[in-house]
Specification:
Layout (H helix, E strand, L loop, with lengths): L3 H22 L6 H4 L1 H31 L2 H12 L2 H10 L11 E6 L2 E4 L5 H23 L5 H22 L15 H14 L1 H4 L15 E2 L4 H11 L16 H12 L15 E2 L4
Antiparallel strand pairs: 1-2, 3-4
Helix pairs in contact: 1-3, 8-11, 10-11
The structure holds heme C (HEC).
Length: 286
Amino acid sequence: MKLLIPFLRVLFFALIAFFLFEVIAGTDDQLAFEKYPMVQTIFWALVILAIFIEIVVGALKSRVYNSLNEEAQERFNDFEDNSYLGKLYAKLLDSKPIEEEGEIILDHNYDGIKELDNTLPPWWVYMFYMTIIFAVIYLLRFEVFNGDSNVMEYEKDVAQAKIDIAEWKKNNPNMIDASSVELLTEAADLEKGKEIFNTNCAVCHLADGGGKIGPNLTDDHWINGGGIKNVFTTITEGGRPGKGMVAWKGDLTALERAQVASYVLSFQGTTPATPKAPEGDVWVEE
Ligand code: HEC
């Protein structure tokens, strides 16, 4: 066991160094170890240094020990055995020294093999007590007070995340882009969309969407693709080059573009006064 101690010390040191590096330079999704090759280099250099120090100190200690006279060696051993860790170690093992084993040897004899009546090692017994305490707490929490199972915890987290996302979207309406835009159905949004449409778009598409310079927006034919995402993209980036439909991302905020896109889609299936002939292909939502 004594031989293991320097090894454990190095291991302990390495673990602490590793965690410190992670705390300082690591991020949630990437270990500092992967992110910065330099961290690895420094880490291994530190570990090698620690091993080196252990070797030098160990050699020095044995040199000094061997140069002591017998009485001093005795005192040194006593000192080591009486150190806090030494005592703790002895206490956790509670094993009889070999000289006293005669006191606990059992009578029976199996072909010359005898058995000692050792007490259970305290480290093991304490661990066993801890499992009992754990079992009681576990039983009470999950069987008596019906604590959340893993599945329930997961579902609660997901539900909470959905609430957070909705909240965030509400507070950041202009963070909409073509991948996150959704059809707005609230009357207030459509009203706003109508206002924007009549001010900016009706000149070319007519107020009822029937089409003039721009194509008919009431039929199910689309040149640049139907559905909220395509319509939002056309309004944002403009139509085909040179066709007269400009990009509106400079004039309208993302929310306004989403509102007017939703309003445009509300024309679907209505019959305008002077409908322009369909252009493009029939759009089928996947
Ligand atoms: C200057 C005239 C003009 C104005 C103003 C205009 N558009 Fe257009 N719009 C067009 C033309 C022309 C096209 C056809 C583009 C193409 O062929 O790619 C078009 C295409 C579209 C399309 C795609 C139709 C399809 O079949 O894919 C949508 C949606 C649209 N406009 C919405 C709007 C909205 C919303 C506004 C107001 C913010 C607006 N437009 C303002 C002329 C205009």
